[in-house]
Amino acid sequence: MEEFIEKATARIEKQFCKLEECCECFVRTMRFYHFTPKTGTLEECKPEMFFELWLPFAHDFRSIFKKEMQQHLNELLKKTKRPSTAPAGAKQTTAKAKPGSLKERMKRLMQN
């Protein structure tokens, strides 16, 4: 029984240490974002006060980011669909090989 109680108290102490670490990390996060609570100090601030402002910011940021990415993709799509320098209907013509030219002689050699 005593062994069980010792293990349980050790686990509880470990959990309290982790809780303290999380609280310190949360305060550092609020300082990083320059959050100032309406009442009290930063250490007394509850997470609800921070996330009350953070949630709308995150949603707005996400929607703006999606719009920006869609706009960027549309611009890239327009760039790829631009017509090339030659019109699409223009036909390419090739010049016939002149008699006695190097191309004509090479053709004759290849055919033989």
Low-confidence stretches: none
What Rg do the Cα atoms give? 37 Å
Number of contiguous helices: 3
How much β-strand is present in the residues? under 5%
Straight-line distance between termini = 103 Å
Helical coverage, percent range: 55-70%
Order of helices and strands: HHH
* Shape assignment: elongated
Whole-number count of domains: 1
Determine the mean pLDDT.
88
How would you characterize the largest beta sheet? Answer: none
- Summing up helix and strand content along with how strands pair, one would put the structural category as mainly alpha
Number of strands: 0
InterPro entries: FH2_Formin_sf
Organism: Anopheles maculatus
Region (Disordered): 78-112
Protein name: FH2 domain-containing protein
What would you note in describing this structure?
The protein has 112 residues and is an all-alpha fold. The chain has one domain (1-80). It is 68% helix and 0% strand. The chain contains three helices and no strands. The chain has helices at 2-32, 47-81, 102-111. It is elongated. The model has no long low-confidence stretch (mean pLDDT 88).
SSE order and pairing:
Blueprint: H1 2-32, H2 47-81, H3 102-111
Region (Disordered): 78-112
InterPro entries: FH2_Formin_sf
Organism: Anopheles maculatus
Provide a compact summary of the structure.
Residues 78-112 are annotated as: Disordered. By secondary structure, the chain is mainly α. It has helices at residues 2-32, 47-81, 102-111.
Task: Output the keywords.
single chain; 112 residues; mainly alpha; 3 helices; FH2 domain-containing protein; FH2_Formin_sf
